[in-house]
Automatic annotation (TrEMBL), chain A:
The protein, known as: Cysteine desulfurase
Residue intervals of the Aminotransferase class V domain: 2-363
Originating species: Ligilactobacillus apodemi DSM 16634 = JCM 16172
Gene3D superfamilies tied to this protein: 1.10.260.50, Aspartate Aminotransferase, domain 1, Type I PLP-dependent aspartate aminotransferase-like (Major domain)
SUPFAM superfamilies found in the cross-reference section: PLP-dependent transferases
Cofactor: pyridoxal 5'-phosphate
InterPro entries in the cross-refs: Aminotrans_V_dom (IPR000192), Aminotrans_V_PyrdxlP_BS (IPR020578), Cysteine_dSase (IPR016454), PyrdxlP-dep_Trfase (IPR015424), PyrdxlP-dep_Trfase_major (IPR015421), PyrdxlP-dep_Trfase_small (IPR015422)
Keywords for this protein: Iron, Iron-sulfur, Metal-binding, Pyridoxal phosphate
Family (UniProt): Belongs to the class-V pyridoxal-phosphate-dependent aminotransferase family. NifS/IscS subfamily.
ATP-binding among keywords: no
Pfam families in the cross-refs: Aminotran_5 (PF00266)
GO molecular function: cysteine desulfurase activity; iron-sulfur cluster binding; metal ion binding
Amino acid sequence: MIYFDNSATTKVHPDVLSTYDKVSESIWGNPSSLHKMGENAYNLLEQSRTQIANLLGCQKEEIFFTSGGTEGDNWAIKGTAIEKGIYGKHLITTMVEHPAVINSMKQLEKLGFEVTYLPVDKHGQISVADLKNALRKDTILVSVMAVNNEIGAIQPIKEIAEVLKDHPKVHFHVDAVQAVGKGLTDLIMDERVDLVTFSGHKFHAPRGVGFLYKKAGRKLAPLLSGGGQEQNLRSSTENLPAIAAMAKALRLLLENETNNVAHEQAIREKIYDHLQKFEKVTIFSELGDKFAPHILCFAIEGVRGETIVHAFEDQGVFISTTSACSSKKGQVSSTLHAMQIDDKIATSAVRVSLDENNTLAEATEFNRIFDDIYQKFLKINS
Amino acid sequence: MQYTEIMVRYGELSTKGKNRRNFIDRLGFNVRQAMHDFPKLVVKAHRDRMHIQLNGEDSTKVMARLKQVFGIQNFSPSIRVERDIEAVKEVITQMVAEKFHEGMTFKINTRRSDHHFKYDTNELNDMLGGHILKTVPGIKVKMKEPDMILRVEVRANGIYLSHETIDGAGGLPVGTAGKAMLMLSGGIDSPVAGYLAMKRGVDIEMVHFFSPPYTSEQALNKAKELTAKLTPYVGKIQFIAVPFTEIQETIKEKVPSGYLMTIQRRFMLRLSEMIAKKRNGLAIFNGEALGQVASQTLESMAAINDVTTMPVLRPVVSMDKNEIIKIAQDIDTFDLSIQPFEDCCTIFAPPAPKTKPKIDKARYYEERLDIDGLLARAMEGIQVTDIKIGDEFMNEKQADFAELL
């Protein structure tokens, strides 16, 4: 079996799972309880927070645990809208964001907010000039993903941050769900960035846990009101086993980041080099530093993405149509659509997404299987 | 830029006449204490300036610590180069180029403490200024308020280059104004009072009253952690925990509820005085602010203060709560202070304390108590802890979780 669908979710690391189990079994007190069991749980919670903050080079008070990427995006956007709605009703994002961002924006539009969706070029990147033009006096938020989940394009976060230095009141949110452990920490933790969404299950932690970085001093309204956890900004009894597991997963991932990135790049390059030889193949993810090391999106002209996915599955290789969230709805990739790729090709797109446990041998095997599949479809289509 | 040295300019010290030497020595000592975990650092406190040789230690971290040491007006990170004009040229170009932005202006400010160097001040200004104009295109010279002032200091052992002057914490070196006790609860006000005392040079020791089982281990740890937050200004602080359970239980049993608080406070003050005398303290500081709570009316202060002739100093007495909170946030004690653990001031708080207690009544009710015995037993149970920069008490069990995380 070859698992090449790590942008959909990753396998929980065995050591991470063991933390989850041990905490569930032995540190199950409520961190808010006053007694020793509560105190113990509280200490573990805060140490998990400190560990994550240290790994990312921020303060522990800037880390807020959430249920994952969707919540983080919703919170950053709607929380900003609630907090700063009296100062302005204009938000800026891109046409290629994850649905958690796009649909939060759509919801806000119904409530009277105005949203600018920035277009992207053929590399999937927005233009900083467009952003500059879109900024208005009443803009309260700019939300841009670090790494696109469908094709792996890296957005020009540094340049956006530079522009926003002249607009200090605008919240700058970065969805970094696909960017963790990919050698991009400096980019996503830029000093002008105010809010960053992280999701645990994309880096070998369990589902249902994530965190939001919120720069100290930036105000964000809570979406979950209640018992006052997480500095009264995100109530709900803390999911301690998952939080501790996530802290461990992040440590394990970042310990070897440089090697991992080089390794994933090498695998991706091997597949890329192979695929580009085929006439009917279009590759959307380019090599080089404008794209993340782990995502490779391509299309075989004339074959639907879904068909390609199943053909690979028959050979024990798991890939996906462009994003797990849209794949079941049979929609065309929103990123490719925004890149103005012809629908005929866009419907044929599939995504290979790697993690540090994949191997070059798997790439060789993938390439071999690809040859078979390609030949088969060539026959059928001709 | 890899800085090699930090040059420190003294604050009010310069006006202190004969005591100057003491002040400088003390400041040197405090800086060394504050940097105890940077072993390679060498601190040299000279008459007019202090030089801190980094010897490879991280200048950013050292400067962050230095910013908190009282008695420093400002400081400049600098780079030492050999007394070779070509070497100087190379480094200043690099320094300027690193910070260069469109339209930037600069000037050179040379100072020679060693007059044997072959160029004089004006020659150096000309040569170096000319070199920068040549090597950094687009930069301009400006004498009044330039964007960057490059300081070049020629000393016997090398030439020192710097361009940044960072404000220090001001105030007086802690310890130069003598020693005093701070009555530290777990609240917002007392750490602020302690900070302000230290700012004027007072060496404070913390006196904290705890009443197990009415107060928890966490409350005690919280007070220790608050102390740790104040250590960067001095290096280390003694934390004196005084058991208060028996006194509180006795008072609760024998004194009418309206006077519970007044008499408890009188005991605390007596104990603080005893500790101060034992440890050569000259005064007692606390975080009382007028009108905040029942114990903080003038009548109440008078009734409590009645037990001692030692100066009781209240740095925040006339501040508004918001002003106190602002300082607490600046010194990073606020978030800790508002954590909800019962401390010994809150657990026996009577429902309706007298806001205008009378001194003679307080004295009268105390006649029923074995004051000396209670005090002596509390003094016997005192525990002293040495608290240093970076100590943590709220997260003590770090090791336990190493395997999980």
